[in-house]
Design a protein that fits this description.
Blueprint lengths: L2 E3 L3 H25 L8 H18 L4 H8 L2 E3 L7 E8 L2 E8 L7 E5 L11 H12 L2 E5 L11 H15 L7 E5 L11
Parallel strand pairs: 5-6, 5-7
Antiparallel strand pairs: 1-2, 3-4, 4-6
Helix pairs in contact: 1-2, 2-3
């Protein structure tokens, strides 16, 4: 299945309706005016329109808990996930998941710090992290750092540093560790 539904029934239904609306509006607009940008496939344009609508609705919800639940209500699954084994990590304060390519990965490890403004850890990052692990052919740690507003910055920096130290204490040499991230996740080591 190309997507999964999670959370409250009302959020799942609303998310599905937003996807349907994005699909119809993109199709009609493309028939009348062509793609929004030259070279954009229908599926890419529809996904982009859906994510814009979905985030707009999410950010208008009253609480961060509701925003997080709505953001995770409808998640697209990329084919890359079929080539990845995901294992949970809970080692003291370090929490997250290993994304391991089913092919033999090399000896490098990627420490991946997801985006989401330090407030969200949407399941949609699984697709991106799976692609990173596959392209790098490396075991990839997807860190579940503490989120704001419950845990203000620098909690995320502390969690990233703890994960790095945990990898070192696990016997992984520093020259074998690559730190990567998107959006807010690109900040913790830039500021240390």
């Amino acid at each position: 299945m190309p997507f999964e539904l999670h959370g409250r029934l009302t959020y799942r239904l609303y998310s599905f309706l937003l996807l349907l609306w994005a699909s119809v509006s993109v199709t009609v607009r493309r028939l009348l005016h062509g793609p929004r940008l030259s070279g954009w496939a229908w599926s890419f344009e529809t996904t982009t329109a859906f994510l814009q609508l979905h985030e707009r609705v999410a950010f208008n919800l009253a609480t961060i808990a509701d925003q997080r639940e709505f953001t995770d209500a409808l998640v697209f699954r990329s084919p890359a996930l079929a080539h990845i084994q995901i294992e949970g990590i809970e080692a003291g304060t370090v929490k997250g998941r290993w994304f391991v390519p089913r092919t033999t990965p090399d000896e490098h490890v990627v420490l991946y710090l997801h985006g989401g403004g330090y407030a969200f850890s949407a399941r949609t990052h699984d697709n991106l992290i799976a692609l990173v692990a596959l392209v790098a052919q490396a075991r990839t740690v997807a860190l579940d750092y503490r989120l704001t507003p419950e845990h203000p910055f620098p909690a995320q920096l502390e969690d990233a540093q703890a994960a790095y130290k945990w990898l070192l204490s696990s016997g992984i040499a520093p020259q074998r560790i690559v730190v990567a991230g998107d959006s807010a996740g690109g900040n913790p080591f830039a500021s240390s």
